[in-house]
Amino acid sequence: MRRVWPGLLVVIAILGVFHLYIWWRLAAPMPEPWRLAATVLVGLGAPSLPLGLVVARRLSRAAARPLLLLVYLWFGLATYLLLAASASHVAVALGAAARTAAMVAGAAAVATLVLGLAHVARGPRVRRVEIPLPDLGVDAYTIVQLTDVHIGAFLGHEFAARVVRDVNALSPDLVVITGDLVDGRLAELRPHVEPLRGLRARDGVFAVTGNHEYYWETEDWLVHLRSLGIRILRNEHVAIGGAFQLAGVDDSTAGEDVPRAVRGRDPALPLVLLAHHPSTIARAAAAGVDLQLSGHTHGGQLLPLGWLCRLFEPLAAGLARFDRTWLYVSEGTGYWGPPMRVGTTQEITAITLVR
Q: What's the pLDDT at 6?
């Protein structure tokens, strides 16, 4: 725990600066008693995310849920309060009254929170993508990609069952899961991942690890997922009939080895790589991969955080080409943190490979 505190204090300090700016532009112009109430709210909210996550990790899933809901809702709201504070600042500089600007901008932030919650309540939708692979061994092949499902504190059995129904309705040739499937203890989430046993695809269900798999009892989780009929590819590849070869690597923060994964591949067939982080594309392109499927970014989840993703990842969402290698990055099937989506969509991706 001593090693955690220095980083935790840095995060709290950064959040403190952001919250101080929110208070200055949105709370300070308010009349009393609204100013006092806003001051208390912003003051309590500043350290809530890092401290709440530390405390919640020590609690059971049931006990952590209400705490995490409050913490994450505030984080989501604070994201847009920060943008609102900036907009208010500009409005005042252009001649608007400080109080009026603060009230309008604050109301817009709250409205964005409500719309984001409503968007998540609709659940994931099917997104269809077509990708050409000239050497494909068949005329067409359908892969359904799930990623960043995050079965955990908020998403459980009902969500997993809905995803399975939607996937099976697509009658895929193959199902792939590109990491961050689970987010909690196996003992608590075992019944919530049970519906995944029902995933059906002609050529099976394959998965790779994401960073969140390494936060919780990694090896125990991998054993259990295999018992559900999910094959975990760990820096290795397999042949998918005569259509293509499928490779998978461990998360880039925990042992990714692209050269090992593709060693001995059949160069006559296209190579599809499952890798949680889009940034793996640099190694994938160098190794002659034809298509990389990734997740991790959630597309930013909350606009404009997707723009920040581009500081760390080559692509936040969608399809792009890097040299001769295609990269598709899903916006994620579930969500992490605030149960809201703004400018992004929970997706089940139906990818049709065509020759």
A: 72
